[in-house]
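Hey, resending since the last one bounced:
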Amino acid sequence: MLVRTLSALVALPILIAVLILGGKLLYAAVLIISLVGLHEFYKAFSRDYMPSRTIGYLATIALYVNLYFTSSLNALGVIIALLIFVSLSFVVFGKMAIGDAMTTILGFLYVPYMLSHLILISDFNKVFFIWFPFIIAFSTDTFAYLTGKLLGKTKLIPSVSPNKTVEGSLGGVIACLVLSYFYANTFMPEFQFYAIFLGLIGSILSQIGDLIASKMKRIFDIKDFGKIMPGHGGVLDRFDSLIIVLPLVYYFMVLFNYINQI
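The structure tokens again:
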């Protein structure tokens, strides 16, 4: 617990500083986190598959270069098409099995693509939204854990995550709803109505993201995806909930902006 706490005390100020400073520093940080997370994903799957790390890494770099120059995912279709084409070409010429190719593509979509939405949120020039995915993911995770410890009796999905409870899950959702509402009410009152729905959907997706990561770890019989953060594990261990929430917040933000322009 001490190592976990000290690790968080070191990482949290760095995270806050990167989000506040934004710009090139944020691009570099998200790119590095994406590459590390993708490495962890491929390493976990390497027990049963042989994904092409080179193809995945190059596709990730191409994605963030595109984001840097266009601030959009306009070239995403082209990047994915090339990723599929190259991967399947390896399959056709006997250099890679179809399962390996699919794992290569899945890793790209699950880690770098999902995390890239943090850049898109940052580029929207609304500081309010950059903090929202972290509030959703971390409040849900923290209060689900605390509520589960205090009141948890009914197992949620024991075959996937034995320690998670229904009471803890509900506690995480309620806490997320309350914090989302008060955050919006304090910094952007016109968004407080939307914040309730975003908090509700985000909290549910956050827990689904956590369960997906837990299921993968059980399938491949690993405790953590990595060791980059002492006491917390790897990138995917720490950001498993955030990965799923980021696209939701981005598209909710786009919808809100569109409605306000009508």
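Residues 168 and 220 are 26 Å apart (CA to CA).

Sorry for the duplicate.
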